C-alpha cells in the first residue's frame, strides 16, 4: 500500500477501520482479493513475488505494508516486502517480532502494520524505535514514517475523522470514495523525498492516475464490535476507471473457522 487512513477504537461500533490505496506500476501483475488456499488469508496477490500488500484473516487479523521512500538505499536484490504481510497474518507474535528484529534490515525500507487480539502494532525498519503498539487513535501512513504530514495523508486522515464524528454506521463505500480524491495540493506544499519534482507532483494526490504508475486498487476494512467484518476492494485501470469491485463479509471467529462468510463480486 502507499496511502492509508485508519482508526483504532475511535468508534463505538468498530474497533478497526482502514481505508487504503495501493499504488504500483501497472505492468506488475497481481490478482484481486480472494481467499487463499494456503495460508488461509483474504488478500490480493503479487504474481511476481508471491506476497501481498494487505490482507485479513477470519480470526480477526489484519496486516498491510507501505514502502519507505528512500531511492538512494534501494537494493534490487532485497527480499520481497510482500512476504512480511503474510508473516504478520500467520506467524505467532513472538516469531514475527523475532524475524523483524533479526532480518528487518534485509528488506528495502518499509512500514508494517498488523492487528491481532484487538491490538495494532507498527514497525519501520529505517528507525531505531523497534516494534510499537499503537494506542487508541486516528492515524495516517504513506511512504514516510507514521503520520508524516504530507498533504495527501493529512487530507485523507481528516476525511476519516469527519466520517467518524457522526457516530453513524460506517459504510465501506464511503471509505472507498474518501480515497478517490485526485486533487493536487499546492506546489509549495509538496515534500522533497529525493525522487524529483515531476514524480513528487505525480504522487501528491491521494489517488494517482498515469499510464505507467498509479492507484491500482482501493481497499476498505471494517471490523465490528458485533463480530462481523467487511473487506471491500475496488480495482482500477491506468486511466483510473473502475475495473472491478469485490466485497467480502464474514464473521470474525477467533480460534475457529467461520462457515457463514459471503462474497459479492461485480465486474
Descriptive notes:
It is a single chain. This protein has 267 residues and is of the alpha+beta class. The protein has a single domain, classed as Penicillin V Acylase, Chain A, CATH 3.60.60.10. It has helices spanning 82-90, 93-103, 151-165, 172-178, 197-202, and strands spanning 3-11, 14-25, 30-35, 42-46, 54-56, 62-67, 110-116, 119-124, 132-134, 137-141, 213-223, 228-236, 242-251, 262-266. The strands form 2 sheets. It has a 7-stranded antiparallel sheet, covered by helices on one side. A hairpin with a 2-residue loop joins strand 7 (110-116) and strand 8. The longest helix is centred in the middle third of the chain and has 15 residues, at 151-165. The two termini are 23 Å apart. Mean pLDDT is 94; it is low at 256-267.
Look at the structure and name the CATH superfamily.
Answer: Penicillin V Acylase, Chain A
Enter the CATH topology name.
Penicillin V Acylase, Chain A
Helix content percent band = 10-25%
Distance between the termini: 23 Å
CATH class: Alpha Beta
Rg (CA only): 17 Å
Supply database-style keywords:
single chain, 267 residues, alpha+beta, Penicillin V Acylase, Chain A, 7-stranded antiparallel sheet, 5 helices, 14 strands, 18% helix
Summarize the structure.
By secondary structure, the protein is α+β, with helices and mostly antiparallel strands. The protein is 18% helix and 36% strand. The chain has one domain: Penicillin V Acylase, Chain A, CATH 3.60.60.
